Amino acid sequence: MGRSALLTVVLVGVCLCLTAVYADTEDDGKLLCICENGKGTCTNGTCRGDVCFYTWVQGNEEKGCFPKRTYKEHCFSSFEHFYIICCKENECNANSTPPPNINGEPTTKPPKIPPPELWIAMSLLLLIITGCMCGLVVFLRFRRARCKLRKAEDNDVTMLKVPHGDDPKYSDIFDEFCTSGSGTGLPYLVQRTMARQISLVECVGKGRYGEVWRGTWMGESVAVKIFSSRDEQSWFRETEIYNTVQLRHDNILGFIASDMTSKNSSTQLWLVTHFHELGSLYDFLQHSSLEPESCLRMCLSVACGLVHLHTEIVSSQEKPAIAHRDLKSRNILVKRNGQCCIADLGLAVIHSQSHDYLDVGNNPRVGTKRYMAPEVLDETIRVDIFESYKQTDIWALGLVFWEITRRTIVNGIVEEYRPPFFDLVPSDPSFEEMKKVVCVDHQRPSLHNRLHSHPILSAIVKIMKECWYQSPPARLTALRVRKTLSKLDHDSDFSTEKLKQDI
């Protein structure tokens, strides 16, 4: 407020006080003046005084009266944004108006401030318009992402019974919503909304955990794993890990959403992931055989996924180290490009060296006996040390490699699919049966002679044997396995290219 305006306020206040003092002196010859103000000091729109006045202050008008003692002091003052006139006749201030301008500035009243109701209506309208624009942007980005999916180029895969083409690029859609630091990205309320928009199409697998269905969402196929009520801890553990850990990797099954729903008075636990039509590695190896180069790349992809799990990442998007604890061919899925991705983290153990914690979960379920390492079977494993769990994964990794190599063609020879130790234990071995074979008899899966005649297969056989040492610390690490296979893959590509050039 300027000095002039402040002075005006003081003036008016003084006038009003004095007006009140002299209000009862009508019979002393006081003038009757028109009185208009917002302070409620007027009586029937009039007042009594020695002088009537009219003021205009920056668009605000007021009328009233002065006592005789103060009118000289105020009536003959002039200010930059202030106009006042005084008169000494009854109601002489009734029709007073300001001059057209004061010091060159017009005295037209400024526009009135809109009432609060109008502001609220305008704000709501602006909010609705903004929401519509955001919705349009999201819709257009979805359309663009789906166009990318349709234009994905096909990749040739050098293996039998593998369809051409890439897997759907789910990330093109989900990256639109993912936010850093939120696990794989989607907020839980968004996950629930998506899960309830999925239509189940067909059941593609059953097991002790429940069922796996192929569903559709936004025109794309997704996998829906429906857990049985007795396996609730596995659902909870996977949901917990996927929502808190940065697990997005080409060789880890892509997570989409998790939801708990009620259907027919029963609770259903859903885990929604990327869909891979070739199914699990176990299913794939039943009816498909491989060339050595395809075998190598498949083994390498599993090793890459395990390295990502085992590695702690310290950055703005932290990832603790994770041990799988139930690695087997049934928990590995085959992608269209011939690579694999690791699934089923229901038994996973989490460790962070930087934050000094080891989280083993609260799942009463144990791993698969056929794939258990010796220290698990004889119960000598150090459960308080994270490295112990990683070493059991390496044991199982060697068994998975063994399954893959059995189905690899060398010199026109390929073996039928069989699970590890098929010739030493029954189809559903007990804990004691596995313990006798692995810990007491020190048996290992048998290796066909043909594997030693091919450089790639013989190198993989060497890795397998180093994964099966009885002493856990003597086994290879996932990183060493990956590096060895990567070098083998590079040398194989170089030899193939050189052979082409020679031809």
From TrEMBL:
<comment type="similarity">
    <text>Belongs to the protein kinase superfamily. TKL Ser/Thr protein kinase family. TGFB receptor subfamily.</text>
</comment>
<dbReference type="Pfam" id="PF07714">
    <property type="entry name" value="PK_Tyr_Ser-Thr"/>
</dbReference>
<protein>
    <recommendedName>
        <fullName>receptor protein serine/threonine kinase</fullName>
        <ecNumber>2.7.11.30</ecNumber>
    </recommendedName>
</protein>
<feature type="binding site">
    <location>
        <position position="225"/>
    </location>
    <ligand>
        <name>ATP</name>
    </ligand>
</feature>
<feature type="transmembrane region" description="Helical">
    <location>
        <begin position="118"/>
        <end position="140"/>
    </location>
</feature>
<feature type="signal peptide">
    <location>
        <begin position="1"/>
        <end position="23"/>
    </location>
</feature>
<dbReference type="InterPro" id="IPR011009">
    <property type="entry name" value="Kinase-like_dom_sf"/>
</dbReference>
<keyword id="KW-0479">Metal-binding</keyword>
<keyword id="KW-0418">Kinase</keyword>
<dbReference type="Pfam" id="PF08515">
    <property type="entry name" value="TGF_beta_GS"/>
</dbReference>
<keyword id="KW-0464">Manganese</keyword>
<dbReference type="GO" id="GO:0097746">
    <property type="term" value="P:blood vessel diameter maintenance"/>
</dbReference>
<keyword id="KW-0808">Transferase</keyword>
<feature type="domain" description="Protein kinase">
    <location>
        <begin position="198"/>
        <end position="457"/>
    </location>
</feature>
<keyword id="KW-0472">Membrane</keyword>
<keyword id="KW-0325">Glycoprotein</keyword>
<feature type="domain" description="GS">
    <location>
        <begin position="168"/>
        <end position="198"/>
    </location>
</feature>
<dbReference type="GO" id="GO:0004675">
    <property type="term" value="F:transmembrane receptor protein serine/threonine kinase activity"/>
</dbReference>
<dbReference type="GO" id="GO:0001525">
    <property type="term" value="P:angiogenesis"/>
</dbReference>
<dbReference type="GO" id="GO:0070724">
    <property type="term" value="C:BMP receptor complex"/>
</dbReference>
<keyword id="KW-0460">Magnesium</keyword>
<dbReference type="GO" id="GO:0007507">
    <property type="term" value="P:heart development"/>
</dbReference>
<dbReference type="InterPro" id="IPR000719">
    <property type="entry name" value="Prot_kinase_dom"/>
</dbReference>
<keyword id="KW-0732">Signal</keyword>
<dbReference type="GO" id="GO:0007179">
    <property type="term" value="P:transforming growth factor beta receptor signaling pathway"/>
</dbReference>
<dbReference type="GO" id="GO:0048844">
    <property type="term" value="P:artery morphogenesis"/>
</dbReference>
<dbReference type="GO" id="GO:0048264">
    <property type="term" value="P:determination of ventral identity"/>
</dbReference>
<dbReference type="InterPro" id="IPR045860">
    <property type="entry name" value="Snake_toxin-like_sf"/>
</dbReference>
<keyword id="KW-0067">ATP-binding</keyword>
<dbReference type="GO" id="GO:0005524">
    <property type="term" value="F:ATP binding"/>
</dbReference>
<keyword id="KW-0675">Receptor</keyword>
<dbReference type="GO" id="GO:0034405">
    <property type="term" value="P:response to fluid shear stress"/>
</dbReference>
<keyword id="KW-1133">Transmembrane helix</keyword>
<keyword id="KW-0812">Transmembrane</keyword>
<dbReference type="InterPro" id="IPR003605">
    <property type="entry name" value="GS_dom"/>
</dbReference>
<keyword id="KW-0723">Serine/threonine-protein kinase</keyword>
<dbReference type="InterPro" id="IPR000333">
    <property type="entry name" value="TGFB_receptor"/>
</dbReference>
<keyword id="KW-0547">Nucleotide-binding</keyword>
<dbReference type="InterPro" id="IPR001245">
    <property type="entry name" value="Ser-Thr/Tyr_kinase_cat_dom"/>
</dbReference>
<dbReference type="GO" id="GO:0046872">
    <property type="term" value="F:metal ion binding"/>
</dbReference>
<dbReference type="InterPro" id="IPR008271">
    <property type="entry name" value="Ser/Thr_kinase_AS"/>
</dbReference>
<dbReference type="GO" id="GO:0043534">
    <property type="term" value="P:blood vessel endothelial cell migration"/>
</dbReference>
